[in-house]
Design brief:
- The complex is a heterodimer of chains A (406) and B (142).
- Chain A has 406 residues and is α/β, with parallel strands linked by helices.
- Helices cover 41% and strands 17% of the residues of chain A.
- Chain A starts with 5 loop residues before the first helix and ends with a helix.
- Chain B has 6 helices and 3 strands; from the N terminus they run H-H-E-E-E-H-H-H-H.
- A 3-stranded antiparallel β-sheet of chain B has the order 1-2-3, covered by helices on one side.
- In chain B, strand 1 (47-49) and strand 2 form a beta hairpin.
- In chain B, helix 2 crosses helix 3 and helix 3 (76-89) packs parallel to helix 6.
- Classes of the chains: A alpha/beta (406), B alpha+beta (142).
């Protein structure tokens, strides 16, 4: 394997090479969305300049090229997840995928009194869709509490499983704290009580190799833009037999086999869940994004990110009043923190003036922030292209902001 | 002093700063100096929820016919911005507040704090200040 060359990686992300407020941009908002390599951007541009056409059913040359590229992307994704092609449904993103499962599998299978277990770490997008189903069907949502270090209370999880939930829906990695949940253990325990399992992989896909077969989850969802791909495209993996038993959701073109004025019959997988002209360009580009991470190797990326995260974490502790939020042993490259007496918004505003892009606020996990008794956090998150020099600039900026606000 | 004169005053004040750091140090200072809102007004009813920082705003009509504002925030930069809004709009006639064009924010280069993406509650606060003024005005006329 070739050495991890940060210069060569950064060359592929020209967006990083710019000044913000007359300072070099330090982009540390990767957990919200990471940047796109040239291969992904060029792929979108190339699609529209060379072979754009509506896919499937078209008899002409361009339609054929576009269809092949789109379906090839599906194959790349299927191989990457160790799934079958027909188990890969293109969605608009993680949120869309969870809503699809909630509105089809959920509405079909969850009845009044049935229990859903989700974790206290969930993003709103893995909470609200279930609340919507619960409101309609009268099912009950149980929450696995979060311990002070940002890990899940597995004792309570075991207790909740004794109530025989129909569904366990948890994230593999917390977006707010970076906690890596023990999903192998959680899935196997859920399977022991015959619960269906959905894993929100939005924060995991750019750090870990994913094998849905080994994982044995029933659904796995993620967004393209969290794995160096475009926004507006995502993936829902579902076990074939479960997807087949699920009713279609959105109606329209592509998802039907035949239609009369009175009725319709649904198409086969995966098209059954892909009504309307899909996001062709971004689907193809998501395939490219996955090829990009595989060209670097997810293990090599993670090793690099771990170095950055550990260095930054240690150095942040030099700042007086530093309080790390989320100190789990297993974490991705996310550092959430607060500084005593300072509001996250103020720190974020000054960091922006210093060219450092971080995220501040509740990170779409309002209940988690309430549970932790904090208004929100400042969150820095690293990606494959960040450098140790950027860690230095980040630390200097935090120190400067702290000094100005104290 | 009219709303316009007060805006000009702030613009001149900010013209003295050479860089952003001095500017923000000044805003932070203004935030620290903002008179404390009376605890009886720092209620949930008076809260303007931004996504990130919270703002409390209280308005009252004085006998002299002007609207008096007091406010607070949990974030100091937001508080500094509030201090400027109050300096410009407080103790002015309700019709002047309602029709005020707060161009000074743009001219001192802080317009980004009023962008909806900032979700600091400031944009909502200005709307609320104008809303109070319209309500007082309607009450006066009625």
């Amino acid at each position: 394997m070739t050495a991890y060359s940060i210069e060569r990686i950064r060359e592929q992300f020209p967006i990083l090479n710019q000044q913000v407020n007359n300072r070099p941009l330090v982009y540390l908002d990767n957990a919200a969305s990471n940047q796109k390599p040239n291969a992904v951007v060029d792929c979108i541009s190339n699609y529209y300049t060379s072979y754009h056409a509506n896919i499937h059913r078209g008899a002409h040359h361009l339609a054929q090229l576009a269809t092949e590229a789109y379906e090839n992307a599906r194959t790349i994704i299927a191989n990457h997840l160790n799934a079958q092609r027909e188990e890969i449904i293109f969605t608009y993103g993680t949120t869309d995928g969870i809503n699809l499962v909630a509105q089809t599998w959920g509405r079909r299978n969850l009845k009044a009194g049935d229990r859903i277990v989700i974790s206290g770490l969930e993003h709103h997008s893995n909470l609200v869709p279930w609340q919507m189903v619960a409101e309609e069907n009268g099912c009950i949502i149980d929450i696995i509490p979060v311990l002070s270090d940002g890990t899940l209370d597995m004792v309570v999880y075991d207790q909740l499983l004794e109530k025989k939930p129909k569904l366990v829906a948890v994230n593999q990695v917390s977006n707010s704290l970076g906690t890596v949940n023990p999903i192998a253990e959680m899935i196997s325990k859920a399977k022991n009580v015959n619960a269906c399992v959905l894993i929100d992989g939005a924060q995991a896909v750019s750090h870990f190799e994913i094998d849905v077969k080994r994982m044995d989850c029933d659904f796995y969802v993620f967004s393209g833009h969290k794995i160096y791909g475009p926004t507006g495209i995502g993936v829902l993996y579902g076990k074939k037999d479960i997807l087949e038993a699920m009713p279609a959701w959105r109606g329209g073109g592509e998802m039907i086999k035949s239609v009369s004025y009175q009725s319709f019959s649904v198409n086969e997988l995966p098209y059954k869940f892909e009504a309307g002209t899909p996001n062709i360009a971004d689907g193809i580009a998501l395939g490219q994004a996955i090829e990009f991470v595989n060209s670097l190797g997810l293990n090599a990326i993670r090793e690099h990110e771990t170095l950055l995260t550990q260095t930054a974490t240690q150095r942040l502790l030099e700042v007086p009043g530093m309080r790390l939020i989320g100190t789990a042993e297993e974490k991705t490259s996310v550092i959430s923190f607060l500084i005593d007496g300072l509001h996250p918004y103020d720190v974020g505003t000054l960091l922006d003036q210093l060219g450092v892009a971080v995220r501040t606020g509740h990170h779409c996990t309002e209940p988690l922030m309430h549970a932790l008794g904090i208004p929100g956090t400042i969150r820095a998150s690293f990606a494959c292209y960040n450098t140790l020099e950027e860690v230095d600039l980040f630390i200097e900026a935090v120190k400067k902001a702290t000094q100005m606000l104290s | 002093m009219t709303i316009e004169q007060r805006q000009q005053e702030i613009i001149e004040e900010f013209a003295l700063f050479d860089d952003w750091m001095q500017k923000y140090e000044h805003i932070i200072e203004l935030g620290k100096e903002l008179p404390v809102i009376s605890s009886e007004f720092k209620t949930d009813d008076n809260i303007i929820k931004g996504c990130q920082s919270r703002v409390w705003l209280h308005a009252e009509m004085l006998d002299s016919g002007v609207v008096h504002f007091t406010a607070d925030s949990d974030a100091i930069i937001t508080k500094g911005m509030i201090a400027m809004m109050i300096r410009v709009l407080s103790d002015q006639a309700p019709e002047d507040i309602a029709s005020a064009d707060l161009h000074f924010v743009n001219e001192i280069g802080l317009h980004q704090h009023l962008s909806p993406t900032r979700s600091n509650g400031l944009l909502s606060m200005i709307k609320q200040m104008k809303f109070y003024s319209l309500a007082f005005q309607a009450k006066n006329n009625g």
